[in-house]
Amino acid sequence: MKFNVQSKALYGLASAVSKVINSKNPMPILNNFLIELRDGMLHITASDLENTLTAKVPVLEAEGEGKFCVDARRLTDLLKSMPDIGITFNIDDDNLAIEVTYNGDKGKFDFIGINGNEYPSTDVKPEEGAIAFTVPSNQILNGIDNTMFAVGTDQLRPQMMGIFWDVKPDSITFVATDTRKLVKYRSTMSEPGVTGSCIMPVKPSAVIKNVFPRDTQVKVTIDAKRAMLEAENVKFSCQLLKGSFPDYNRVIPVNNPYAMTVDRGTFLSALRRVSVFGDQGQNQAKLKINAEEVTIKAVDNNYCTRAVETISCDFNHSEMVIGFSAPYVMEIFSTITTDDVVVTLSDPSRPGVFMPSENAENSELLMLLMPMNVSEF
Predict the structure, then answer these.
(1) pTM for the complete prediction?
(2) Contact 121, 54 (CB under 8 A)
(3) What is the C-alpha to C-alpha distance for residues 163 and 198, in angstroms, rounded to an integer?
(4) What is the three-class DSSP state of 213?
(5) DSSP letter string over 133-165?
(6) pLDDT band at 200 (very low <50, low <70, confident <90, very high)
(7) Read out DSSP for 318-349?
(8) Which residue from 205, 216, 271, 193 is spatially nearest to 238, judged by alpha carbons?
(9) What are φ and ψ of residue 27, in 5° steps?
(10) 164-186 in b/e burial notation, b at 16+ Cβ within 10 A?
């Protein structure tokens, strides 16, 4: 078997596919790529048994067909340092000796592959009752970008350790929560035309975010156990989380009458400075809000440190004092991209709702954050 391929094109695929491979695998074969040549295309697959990712790239001067396994790290490191040039793979079908050459024979590398039949089966078929729909990749990637930071890490609540996909005929809603904060991102960029749901774990969510290109169409198939996403040159299958996701609509306040509008960049910079002087255990930031300005305060009595900053805002109430976790608020303000952020409140013991001043086209973003007890400002 022999083929020629552009080194940087192959490196891009190998680097992307390698994100599925764990640092420690239950089977040594999973430290390898499965490489298959068929129909003039080179298919590269990686798997950790729960997640399987395959990408493909066209090749030149292909002779023969077949499959073999090669150490993922060695191949990726080799391709990383290669110039952007065509490289030739020559594989001995009898003993799987691999010879990689480029620039004539001025560069030559020899190593041994493994029989591709030893690689675990990657052929996954949807179960009965699966739903399928095709949507723009941007719809999925925007949902993951806006919600991943709020995913829970508590092993006792495994159903919260992922992003909930709530698929409706006219929209997809992405939700993540760790019980302290909740993010809901609803997108109507396209209409799936089906109804279903799943909980996507963090690792496959990160793979999707880093591997799937923007501005392309993605076919999504979801059954009770797995989700499969397929774009033009990428195919990904992942295991879903079991359990029922909490009813997120029940915890979102329907009536927060008081609204504070503040410049996102100014508030975020002030909060970062003030939080340096706060108690690093509690990470509490106190907000004293009146009609025209908000004062941010952080105190650490153990080290006798204190910081206060006041910035302009617009608040439709006389005055309120409320406390939030500073790191959580910074995450929220870093995720929202509009110039202004609107924070709606009811009282200091009820959650605050953070929203962009204006939602992007075909989307609706809402972030909820539970307050912290404030005895005095």
Answers:
(1) 0.93
(2) no
(3) 8
(4) coil
(5) EEEEHHHHHHHHHHHGGG----TT-GGGSEEEE
(6) very high
(7) SEEEEEEEHHHHHHHHHH--SSEEEEEES-TT
(8) 205
(9) -130, 130
(10) bbbbbeebbbbbbbbeebbbbbb
